[in-house]
Each structure stands twice: as structure tokens, then as C-alpha cells.
Amino acid sequence: MSPGRLPNTVTIDKLPFGVSYAVNPVIVKFMENLRYIDQLGRGLPMVCQEAKKNGKKNEFAEIGESFKVTLEL
Description:
The protein is an alpha+beta fold and 73 residues long. It has one domain (2-71). It has helices spanning 25-33, 43-53; strands at residues 2-3, 58-63, 66-71. A hairpin with a 2-residue loop joins strand 2 (58-63) and strand 3. It starts with a strand and ends with a strand.
């Protein structure tokens, strides 16, 4: 669960394709400089790809003012 809805033009249908939006670009740049991240929009597509490869399901949902990712174990 993550507080807040998906930003701007990002939709649940677009998430598996790597559509992302930096809500705070200053923090993004800081994290890039520290090499904690290398590219925006890679995480959820990798989750979808690994789930499919392992025969598992994943689900994205906006619930009120929160965003939820569920991954079948």
C-alpha cells in the first residue's frame, strides 16, 4: 500500500509498460546521484514480467486515496 493516488496521466493500465512520473524530481536526482536508482518506470514492469514467468498473478488497484500492489505468492 502506498498513500496517494497515481499521479497525472499514469493509469493502472499503463503501469506494466513502465509509464511513470516523478512526483519529486529533486529526490529522484539525488537518488540517481547516489546510484540507488538507474531509471524510472522499471520496477513494476519487472514485477509483472517475473510474476508471469513464475505463473503468478499481480494486481494493481487504487483504493480511495491509496495505491495497492498485490503479488500472488
